Amino acid sequence: MGVKQENGDPENILPPIEQELSHELDTKVKKYLRGEGANLEVLKDKKLKGQLSVREDLYGISAKAAAKAEKWLMPSKGGYLEAEGIEKTWRIKQDAINREVDISSAKNQYDIVLPDFGPYTLDFTSSGRYMAAAGRKGHLAVVDMKNMSLIKEMQVRETVRDILFLHNELFFAAAQKKYPYIYNRDGVELHCLKEHGAVTRLQFLKNHFLLVSINKFGQLRYQDVTMGEMISNFRTGLGRTDVMLANPFNGVVALGHSGGTVSMWKPTSAVPLVKMLCHPGPITAMAFHPNGNLMATSGKEKKIKIWDLRKFEVLQNIPGHAKTLDFSQKGLLAAGTGSYVQILGDFSGSRIYSRYMGHSIVKGYQIGKVAFRPYEDVLGIGHSMGWSSILIPGSGEPNFDTWLANPFETSKQRREKEIHSLLDKLPPETIMLDPSKIGTVKSAKKKDKPTKEEKEAEMEAVVEAAKGTAIRKKTKGKNKPSKIAVKKKKIVERAKRPFLEKQMEEENVAKKKQKISEEISLPTALQRFARKKATA
Amino acid sequence: MKVKVISRSTDEFTRERSQDLQRVFHNFDPNLRTQEKAVEYQRALNAAKLDKIFARPFIGAMDGHIDAVSCMAKNPNYLKGIFSGSMDGDIRLWDIANRRTVCQFPGHQGAVRGLTASTDGSTLVSCGTDCTVRLWNVPVATIMDSDNSSDCSSEPRAVYMGENAFWAVDHQWNGDLFATAGAQVDIWNHNRSQPVNSFKWGTDSVISVRFNPGEPNLLVTSASDRSIMLYDLRVSSPARKLIMRTKTNSISWNPMEPMNFTAANEDCNCYSYDARKLEEAKCVHKDHVSAVMDIDFSPTGREFVTGSYDRTVRIFQYNGGHSREIYHTKRMQRVFCVKFSCDASYVISGSDDTNLRLWKAKASEQLGVLLPREQKRHEYNEALKNRYKHLPEVKRIVRHRHLPKPIYKAGVLRRVMIEAERRKDQRRKAHSAPGSIVTEPMRKRRIIKEVD
What we know:
The complex is a heterodimer of chains A (536) and B (452).
Chain A: H1 9-13, H2 16-33, H3 46-73, E1 80-82, H4 94-100, H5 103-106, E2 110-113, E3 120-124, E4 130-135, E5 139-144, E6 149-155, E7 160-165, E8 171-176, E9 180-184, E10 189-192, E11 199-205, E12 210-215, E13 219-224, E14 230-235, E15 243-246, E16 253-256, E17 261-265, E18 274-277, E19 283-288, E20 294-299, E21 303-308, E22 313-319, E23 324-327, E24 333-337, E25 340-345, E26 354-360, E27 367-373, E28 378-383, E29 386-391, H6 411-423, H7 452-467, H8 481-521
Chain B: E1 2-4, H1 10-13, H2 36-53, E2 58-62, E3 69-74, E4 81-86, E5 91-95, E6 100-105, E7 112-117, E8 123-128, E9 132-137, H3 141-145, E10 158-161, E11 168-171, E12 177-181, E13 185-189, E14 197-199, E15 206-211, E16 218-223, E17 227-232, E18 240-244, E19 248-253, E20 260-265, E21 270-274, E22 283-285, E23 292-297, E24 303-308, E25 313-317, E26 323-327, E27 335-340, E28 346-351, E29 356-360, H4 372-387, H5 392-399, H6 405-430, H7 442-445, E30 447-451
Antiparallel strand pairs in B: 2-29, 3-4, 4-5, 5-6, 7-8, 8-9, 9-10, 11-12, 12-13, 13-14, 15-16, 16-17, 17-18, 18-30, 19-20, 20-21, 21-22, 23-24, 24-25, 25-26, 27-28, 28-29
Helix pairs in contact in B: 2-4, 2-5
């Protein structure tokens, strides 16, 4: 790999503090190297090897620079919550946290009580600056979370099942009683997406500008919001569901079904990429870890499961029911049920989740949705009587990138970012389970055995050629039409023979193989009952 | 209990006054950038497409000559100036920036065959088929900048008579010698009317001569008896000779690696040689479909430009087997001479249709002063294209060039012929005793022998 491991002599010379620093940097470098480098030893082409090793060196240098930048140049440090003595973190109440933190953070703890239009569902923009809230009975609101001001509030007077922001805070989509609608920030209805039908859940793929919806009849639709083109429309055939989530890592959309299966979809194939049986009963909620390797699902049978998405293997079974799940940017998992939210965390680094925090809202309120606010230590809870916000230290990414998601974005920056993200819009074909395959060349596959059709076509061609052979004129009596017909037949047979022989040979081999496998498959105790050979 | 939560004050993350720049922050965490590889690939594709959109290499034509342009010379001391000589004996000095004639020299009786300027840029040497070598005083830069295109009808500073027609001339780097090629190679001094030295090896006439930029006493010539000869002025006899299967029309030394030179050959290819090791070419540059007439290296030494009888100008990497770029227009006829400008950003071609044409060396380059942000963006796009250049879609876009039909067809025909020859060789090899037929690499195949 490009980074030279500064092991050996120099390390022994360094004082212990600097050694520790270099170790810390090494672990950080690993993150930025994005996996192993190419194995150049197998290459025979010296020129190519030289070029690639230069490039690998460059990767190493840039990873090191990024690690150093992370170490020294980041403006903020992440939040934390540490228990002292016999305290337990999950016993610490929000009031206690409120007393300890600064005033501006304490402002993020509040309850909004709106008893008339609940239950509420929430969505944050990717920068965490704006929040859209939708009450089931038709109340839509867009809130600026920085100065806690209401940007727009309206009443659509019909059922609203889901709300979400499109690529920035200027547009949001709401899944209403009969159709989903797209509104702008001022509350003006821009589009009514009639084709989607009565949608239960919406998702937006930011890199692809695709609006994904699942409707009452289990139809999954992808629509390009830039040009309005309907990319695909699949009938899942797995029944009605309101559990749908896009994996941020690769853009694959996962659906949780009432049969306990989770199916994963991409817009270019009408059959699911993956269908995995996760729970014995209906699936109630799902969440994806931001690095795309972990999935959390919860079922009606009161189990929360953590899955490894690289092996499709269950990592952990957590008892407990969850009506809604969400992963934070730093990997905390929030599970909400009834009027209680539990926060789980992975503190050992071994992907084993344990209790971190808990919070009870007023008894009788039913939690419908939990959502971590990006780049903040805040959890938004949508429930039957409005929405609440609590502090979860250590949940958000402390440092934002101005070019990705900027909570302090000016309108000029927003406009520029919109243009750039449109230029970088990905085609729907780039959605796949392993996105690291993009930008690589498929290795040349060796030609397989000829298929049956090819063999037949070859034989046909030979037979046709044989039929066409001119028959020499022979002595009198041998040119009779009957004789010529016989001769032609013979020629054709002779041409066919090698093919037929080959075919027979293959069949024999297959039969023999089958016989052997039959013999092997019987356990030794039963082999005496095996069919005896005719001779025996 | 110890607790801390993220809290950002607006003052820390926004600017204080409206005149300030916006504060920006970086976080390179891969988890924040989803699908970064796909996005990067998309950007590479866009960069390749943008390159195609902005590819407008032709800047303008400079007309004025009344016969074909036969030779050109750069003014090493003045970036904007270029000399050109034509078949009717006319010599002109052009201002490239304004694309107009600055000065017209009276010239020769017959065709001008060779032009060269001394390294200090004060003297222009021309030779022609009227058996004369003429030395001219180059007007100073202030005259060039003035508006009126003066007719510097100054008489030549000196006229030296030879016995035979001259075919080429080249001036020594950092010296006051120049060499002419004709029936033999003559070495002249500025101040003497007779050659100081003459070389002759073989019977046929020498058609091109070029001094080495690194070692001022070394020169290379090519003759119409298909030979390439190396001379050293410090010894009285020619040094080495290489005979190829076809004639070499022109030669250029690589200014950054002065032991290497590239020969423009009649067989549509260019051959890069190491002057110390002539038994094998270092690289064969293929793509032209007719004889290559002239070649000139970029001052960076990383690429060179060729002009061909097939009416195209191509730009090659110094070590690339195929051309990076092809330039053609409907009106451009056979190209007789090409030059890279001294800042490596323009290419000038002179052709049969009496015009000089000015091209950009990089077809889609943005001219003028670039802002730092623009500069960065161009560099980023270049790096992206370079990273993904092997992928089929990017490769297809980057490689595609529209060609005039006759050139396209000639290229196809050439490929068919080469392929047929290769197949025939293979078959011959397969049906003869093993080891009896040895296929030589293309780098050796066109060389007949090397003579010391």
